[in-house]
Every structure is written in C-alpha cells, then in structure tokens.
C-alpha cells in the first residue's frame, strides 16, 4: 500500500513538472512569435517630438494586436507589446492597458506583464534606467524616476489615470517577485519622456 502511494505521488510530481515545462515552452514560443511579428513593423528611429499624433492611427489598434516592442536596455530584454491585458495577451508579451495612451499622445501609457515571465528581473531596475517603446512610427525613450516607484495592493486601480495630460509610462507587475501563486501586490514604475 505504501509503495502504491509513493508511486502515485511520484507520477503526480512528474505530471506537474511536465505540465509546467509545457506551459513555459508554450509561453516562450508565443512570445517569440509575437516578437518576430513586431520586429517586422517597428522603427529604431528615435522620436523626440510628435507633430501630428493622428497620423499614427492608434484608433485602429484592436484587442490582441501586436503593436510594438518594449526594450529594456539595462536587462538587454526585448518584449512584444500586445493590445490588452487579459491572460491571453499577457501570456505572449507585455500588455497595453486599453483606454490608456500611446507614445506622443501626452497621456498615461500603462503596460503590464507577469513577473515570472516577461518581467523576471524587473526588480533590478532603478532611477535613471530607460524603457524604449519601439513602434511602427519610431522609438520613444522613457527614463525611470525612482521617486515614482510604488508598491500597491493588487486591487488598487489608482495607479491608472487615463485623464492625465502629461506623458508618463507606467509599467506594472505582480509583487513580491519571488512569491509563489497569485501575488497580493503590484510593483509599479513610472518613467517620463527623455
């Protein structure tokens, strides 16, 4: 009887590990596919001033569209940006929160991602580090201001402010970084145009 229970636990452990490995592989494959899509449309030309934001056609972006790449120089990490923050989008890259702005609109831009996939080393970022948002019409650079870092409860939506009239890139992920399961808080960084 004891041998049967031990075998059952061993088989269950192997199944759980296999499932986790498959999920990790699937996430990596989906992210790579989206990154390849984004790489075909983005421009590396740095944009410092936007004259006519309507020419960018942000209103034509639909839920699930690949819209660009978030590059984090300090981590040498490129992550595809997907419109939407549902689980399906977050499993393939960093999600753009619908209803918030895009580069050049002088609004809050909100990007979210999982701490255990796209933002694995997010806690290493500090004051002065940069985020580059690469889109079809250019690359926009934002600088982190450490004084603007926040840790808020998971259900706190006060960090989302679509009524802002100054451009700020807000990037969030679950916190604590090493927490197993659904984390109780969110780690939020704010970065401003360079």
Overall description:
The protein has 194 residues and is α+β, with helices and mostly antiparallel strands. The protein has one domain (2-193): Sortase (Sortase, Chain: A, Beta Barrel), CATH 2.40.260.10. The chain has two helices and nine strands; from the N terminus they run αββαβββββββ. It has helices at residues 2-41, 87-90, and strands at 66-72, 77-83, 94-96, 108-112, 130-135, 138-144, 150-153, 168-175, 185-193. It has an eight-stranded mixed β-barrel with strand order 1-2-3-4-8-9-6-5. The chain is elongated, with a radius of gyration of 19 Å. The model has no long low-confidence stretch (mean pLDDT 87).
Q: In the CATH hierarchy, what is the architecture at level 2?
A: Beta Barrel
CATH topology: Sortase, Chain: A
DSSP, total strands: 9
**Taking all residues together, what is the mean pLDDT?**
87
Q: What structural category arises from helix and sheet content?
A: alpha+beta
CATH class categorisation = Mainly Beta
Radius of gyration: 19 Å
Count of spatially separate domains: 1
Distance between the termini: 67 Å
Order of helices and strands: HEEHEEEEEEE
Fraction of helical residues? 10-25%
CATH superfamily: Sortase
| Count of helical regions | 2
Q: How are the strands of the largest sheet arranged?
A: 1-2-3-4-8-9-6-5
Strand fraction: 25-35%
Label the overall shape: elongated
Main sheet: strands, sense, barrel? 8 strands, mixed, barrel
């Amino acid at each position: 009887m004891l041998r049967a229970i031990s075998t059952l636990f061993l088989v269950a452990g192997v199944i759980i590990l296999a499932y986790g490995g498959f999920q990790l592989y699937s996430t990596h494959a989906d992210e790579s596919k989206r990154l390849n899509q984004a790489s075909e449309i983005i421009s590396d030309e740095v944009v410092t001033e936007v004259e006519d934001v309507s020419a960018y056609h942000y209103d034509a972006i639909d839920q699930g569209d690949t819209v660009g790449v978030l590059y984090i120089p300090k981590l040498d990490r490129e992550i595809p940006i997907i419109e939407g923050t549902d689980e399906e989008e977050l499993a393939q890259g960093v999600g753009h929160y619908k209803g918030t702005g895009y580069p050049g609109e002088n609004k809050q831009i909100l990007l979210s991602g999982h701490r255990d996939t796209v933002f694995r080393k997010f806690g290493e970022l500090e004051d002065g580090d940069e985020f580059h948002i690469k889109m079809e019409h250019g690359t926009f650079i934002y600088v982190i201001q450490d004084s603007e870092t926040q840790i808020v409860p998971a259900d706190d939506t006060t960090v989302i402010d679509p009524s802002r009239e100054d451009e700020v890139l807000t990037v969030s992920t679950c916190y604590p970084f090493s927490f197993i399961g659904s984390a109780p808080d969110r780690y939020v960084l704010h970065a401003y145009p360079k």
